[in-house]
Design a protein that fits this description.
It contains 13 helices and 16 strands. It has about 450 residues and is an alpha/beta fold. The strands form three sheets. An eight-stranded mixed beta sheet has the order 3-2-1-4-13-14-15-16, with no helix packed on it. The protein has a five-stranded parallel beta sheet with strand order 8-9-10-11-12, with helices on both faces. A hairpin with an 8-residue loop joins strand 1 and strand 2. The chain binds zinc ion. The site of zinc ion has 4 residues, from loops.
């Protein structure tokens, strides 16, 4: 009886299997492995080492399985039922996906202009551009533009509402195409400081201030960091000096105990800390507190360089931020003058500081990030070091070197391809022809492959 029942059950089960629609699979059964064989004309697998010609990158699902000499068309140890596809990039230069350590995804000048043109009552309400709903739509569009420009991982260092959290989560869940996003949420700032986005009439409202990332004194600043952590931030950003955008000068705005509280609290909860800093005094105070990166750093002096070198602190130069966005364009902007006067980037490079690639995209058009490469090379960096900065070094700053930054077996399949040789002419990186993120082809022959990747049902 028992045997018979089992047989009946088995019959029912097979009927259920047969009833699967074409292309479907029974629940619980994993899909067949998907192999992509990328035939690279030239492959720069590990920036900093010599590129190789006629190579194959073997990708299994979302990871790199092997790097082979020549253009191979088969996988010896492929799993049964595996699907194989060859991607012909034999006339292209293939390199790891690029990374930008400093973007602001919720806004850009074109949108600020649009706000003014459509007659918003407060088009330049400080720090509150695309608040909420509009910030999310902006972030979806701009994240995609960063990916199309070859940036498979970006770090958002301050979009002052929760819009970018939603976009990051949607990308991570596979609901839409976009770069991997690490985000800071609201930048931490002091009352009246660069990055204080709390509306004037709420300045006395403790809860609003903390939620906006505004704090005074170590205890409040600990709480402000913990608030962003609770929201799900991946990194903590704080503005330790004034800035150009807020017209608050370039001098220190935080006391040493506030800087120490912010950095120590970030580290306590396992997050890195990034300091927006111009004044050399503020740069050194942040380095003393153990900050992970100095953003901008235009006024970096020799003592600061020596301290950063000893501590292993990264510089994120954002040379692109020296060029003010068109809406605010003014002759001889102070940022360009200071950059040229202090030559911090050139001296930091000569001293062998760790330099991560960061642009401040959002203060100019998203998707133009690669202009930073030309500026870096223009100021004396070799094209190889500039590419290494945007891959190996930025991955190290992000703490994801084991997963990304080079094309090696076991790592996530994030790669881009261009026509031409970026080591001979760095400007070719402005024209990214092919983008793969996590084994998914996002751009091919210069075009994004699909408008958006909305699954019918979220599994
Ligand atoms: Zn910025």
């Amino acid at each position: 009886m028992r045997v018979l029942l089992t047989a009946v059950l088995l019959c029912l089960l097979s009927a259920a299997v047969l009833a699967q629609p074409a292309g479907g699979r029974p629940p619980g059964q994993t899909p067949p492995d998907r192999y992509l064989l990328i035939h690279a004309g030239t492959l720069l697998a590990v920036p900093g080492t010599r590129p190789q010609t006629k190579m194959t990158v073997v990708i299994r699902n979302d990871r790199i399985a092997a790097i082979e000499n020549g253009h191979v068309t088969a996988v010896a140890d492929a799993t049964p039922g595996a699907v194989l596809q060859v991607i012909d990039l034999s006339d292209r230069f293939v390199l790891p996906g690029l990374m930008d350590a400093h973007v602001h995804l919720w806004d850009e000048p074109s949108f600020s202009r649009h706000r003014a043109e459509r007659g918003d009552r407060h088009p330049s309400w400080p720090g509150k551009p695309g608040t909420g709903a509009e910030g999310a739509v902006n972030a979806m569009i701009y994240a995609r533009r960063n990916l199309a420009a070859g940036f498979t991982t970006v770090r958002d260092l301050g979009s002052d509402d929760q819009s970018v959290f939603a976009v990051r989560n949607a990308i991570n869940a596979g609901r839409m195409i976009g770069p991997r996003i690490l985000l800071a949420g609201s930048a931490i700032a002091v009352t009246g400081g660069h990055g204080d986005t709390t509306p004037m009439d709420r300045t006395g409202d403790g809860a609003t201030r903390i939620a906006d990332g505004t704090c005074d004194g170590p205890m409040e600043c600990r709480k402000a960091v913990r608030y962003q952590y609770k929201l799900g931030a991946d990194v903590i950003k704080f503005t330790s000096t004034g800035g150009f955008g807020s017209n608050t000068g370039l001098e220190p705005q935080l006391f040493p105990d506030e800087i120490q509280a912010i950095v120590a609290t970030a580290h306590l909860v396992g997050l890195k800390a990034a300091a927006h800093a111009y004044s050399p005094v503020a740069i050194k105070e942040a380095v003393r507190a153990g900050v992970d990166s100095i953003e901008h750093g235009f006024l970096l002096d020799d003592e600061g360089i020596a301290m950063m070198k000893k501590a292993g602190t990264f510089l994120v130069p954002t040379l692109s931020a020296s060029y003010p966005p068109p809406v605010f364009r003014i002759p001889d902007p102070p940022s360009v003058r200071l950059r040229n006067e202090y030559r911090a980037f050139e001296r930091a490079y000569a001293a062998g500081l760790k330099i991560a690639f960061g642009t401040d995209a959002g203060t100019f058009a998203h998707g133009d990030n690669a202009k930073e490469f030309e500026l870096m090379v223009g100021f004396g960096m070799t094209p190889m070091d500039a590419i290494r900065s945007a891959t190996v070094m930025t991955a190290e700053l992000f703490g994801i070197s084991a997963e990304a930054g080079t094309l090696e077996p076991g790592k996530i399949a994030d790669l881009v391809a261009v026509k031409g040789d970026p080591l001979a002419s760095i400007a070719v990186l402005r024209r990214i022809d092919f983008v793969m993120k996590s084994g998914h082809i996002a751009k091919q022959d210069g075009r994004m492959t699909e408008p958006f990747n909305y699954p019918a049902v979220v599994e």
